[in-house]
Amino acid sequence: MKFKEFGLNEKLLEAIGYMNFEKATEIQEKAIPVIMEGKDLIGCAQTGTGKTAAFVLPTLHQIAEEAHNGIHTLVLVPTRELAIQIDQQIQGLAYFTNTESLAVYGGGDGVSWEQERRALSHGADIIIATPGRLISHLNNGYVRFENVRHLILDEADRMLDIGFYEDILKIIGYLPKKRQSLLFSATMAPKIRKLAQQILHDPLEISISVSKPAEGVTQTVYMAHEDQKTPLTKHILKDKDNFRSIIIFCSTRRKVEQLTRNLKRSHYNAQGISSDYEQEEREKVLLDFKSRKTRILVATDVLSRGIDIKDINLVINYDVPGDAEDYVHRIGRTARAETKGMAITLISSDEMYKFHRIEKLIERELEKLPPPAELGEGPQWETPSPKGKNRRSKSNFRKKGNFKGRKKGPGKKPENT
Q: For residues 287 and 345, what is the distance between their CA atoms, to the nearest angstrom?
């Protein structure tokens, strides 16, 4: 379906044409008419399916067609990176309109705080915000949400994973009860459905390719001991000179730093990014990667969802993600919008159970390759049992002295982001 068939505002169509967009993706084709009709919506779609434009385009259409005062639309997102990316996409699509948008997120200076305060009190058309930062502004009493007509929650599952459930409900308490509400999530876990029941009214539900890798991703798996992963990563990279954009995902910030240093010593054009970086530094690293100044980006899962970086040739999972669905989001960085891409995962003996869960989720068993002969033998794949895995995990924690005092629970930010 072509965008001109949706009945969108002419200035929006002009911007779409200028950006060389012509044919809508599946989530756009199904969601845009529903949103333009004013109905509440649950959209379940993995990263790379075009869901940002699926809610941005009808929102911009409504702003162009409706008279309004103050803030028209509030978009809640889990991370500052996603807030910035959505704001940039809005600015591109709204280029020929008078729509104003602003990303509200932590990590900035006093100047950015003052800019956010003015927008929240005097009214930009669209506010894209992380819950924590927005709560800080709400507590100061100047935020004007009485005219908000549309609420959008993007990456709702990740917001709940981080622990924003109560913050989301608190923010919604400031909004008019009569509004259109949209919830987008990569998964439909029970906690997402519970949230949807609380904030949506008689929603339509659209589900697109839930928890399955994109068709264009070639998935390769190597068995490797921990001390083999870095040399194996270099082995993978050495014949990929024609790959211009590569992302490597590590499980911890320390591994990001170690691998980045190692790659730089081997003369690879690589940069690392994690939550240890200051906001300005993170933005610069992302900009350099997007503009192809940096070829290899080493990251924690701060980048696994929501960041719109096009034409990624290769994703390497240096570590198997703890959440099976995060595997889909990680490799979703490549093969976006019907392109081709490659994803390679390195599995140690302690990660076999995690990858077994991934195979169950994607309903596909992948061939497990050995490392190159010069790196020595890797671990042998065994289909582990959950019971056995649980015993090993506790034993390993005690051995490392980390088991005592470790706490899990809702609301605690993951240590490795």
A: 26
236 and 185 in one domain?
no
Based on the fold, state whether residues 126 and 168 are members of the same structural domain.
yes
Checking DSSP bridges between strand 41-45 and strand 180-185, what pairing results, if any? parallel
pTM: 0.65
The two beta strands, 314-317 and 341-347, are parallel
Nearest to 412 by CA among 234, 164, 103, 205: 164
Is the pLDDT at 359 greater than 60? The verdict is yes
Nearest to 334 by CA among 372, 291, 297: 297
**Angle, CA of 32, 149 and 203, to the nearest 5°:** 50
SS (H, E, C) 350-379: HHHHHHHHHHHHHCCCCCEECCCHHHCCCC
Check whether residue 39 and residue 129 sit in a common domain: yes
Going from the C-alpha of 374 to that of each of 229, 239, 379, the distances in angstroms are 13, 16, 15
Whether the Cβ atoms of residue 217 and residue 343 lie closer than 8 Å to each other:
yes
Residue among 314, 358, 316 nearest 229 (CA): 316
The mean per-residue pLDDT over the stretch 19-45 comes to 90
Q: Which tokens is 158 given? A: 């990740």
Give residue 416's pLDDT band: very low, low, confident or very high (50, 70, 90).
very low
* Cα–Cα distance for residue pair 382/210, rounded to 1 Å: 27
- DSSP, collapsed to helix, strand or coil, labels residue 299 as strand
Q: Amino acid identity of 101?
A: S
Whether 183 and 153 have beta carbons less than 8 Å apart is answered as yes
Range of the domain at 128: 3-208
| 132 and 244 belong to one structural domain | no
What residues contact 264, with CB distance under 8 A and at least 6 apart? 270
Instruction: Report the domain count for the chain.
Output: 2
Q: How far apart are CA 210 and CA 187, in angstroms?
A: 7
CATH assignment at residue 15:
3.40.50.300
How far apart are the C-alpha atoms of 166 and 410, rounded to whole Å? 10
Q: In terms of residues, how long is the chain?
A: 417
> Mean pLDDT in the chain?
85
The two tokens of residue 326 are 């995060």
- Rounded distance between C-alpha atoms, residue 348 and residue 152, angstroms: 40
